[in-house]
Amino acid sequence: MSREGSDNKHLFWVSYADLMTALFIVSLSLFILSYKLFKDKEDIIVGKEKELEILADQLNSKEEAIRILQSELDDNELQALNLIENLETERGRLAVLEEEYRKIREIQKAIEKLNQEYFVYQPEYKRHVLRRNVKFAAKQSEIPGTDKDYLIKAGKELERLIKEIDLEGFNIKYLLIIEGMASKDNYELNDELSYARALAIKEFWDAEGISFDPNRVEIQIAGSGVGGVGRDMAVEKNNQRILVQILPKIGELKDIPPAKQEAPVN
Fold first, then answer.
1. pTM here?
2. Per-chain mean pLDDT for the chain
3. Which CATH number fits domain 1-266: 3.40.960.10, 3.30.1330.60, 2.40.30.30, 3.30.200.20?
């Protein structure tokens, strides 16, 4: 082989080696570049995943806050409904009490119109007293004969009034208090004496056929002795007398539907 051919062959392999080296360098550069791009994208993806995790945590927190707010809203709505129901109930109860009070006032006004020939109404004490003092003897509870006719007429007036006051739709009952009093002296049994005087009136009316329906009238016998209110401070002897109090008690009202009803305050 000639020298020229040998040189050409040598140059071929040198060029081939340079080409392969260049290709290797290019491939390596491309690999490094691709790896860097991959790592950059991987870092971006990891960063995005962390951002997504943070956003997911925030979303979960907001969802929990929304659930709490919804629960509070439901509780508030229930409380509001209960409050509205209670207000409606209270409005109904007040309407009943207002109607009860109105009827009581009507009855009280009617009671105040007891025949003034036999009774005197004392508005400051909301009670009646017999216009004529029963002339009890000192330390005695026996009714004098001179007062019996007057007491019969007064008892019948009470009986008439209670029978006439019967408002339709109302279960009206009465508390009839017969109270005896005594004048201040040195008698030690004035409390017992005042009670005995009130009891004597009740027993006298019973004997004369003056009666009150027990289903409508509760009778209480009382003795205030030398105490009580509204005593005659000028003439002590005038406190030997009988007081009569008639208190109406309204039963259940059937024409006003709402709510539980309470007993009226007398």
1. 0.55
2. 78
3. 3.30.1330.60
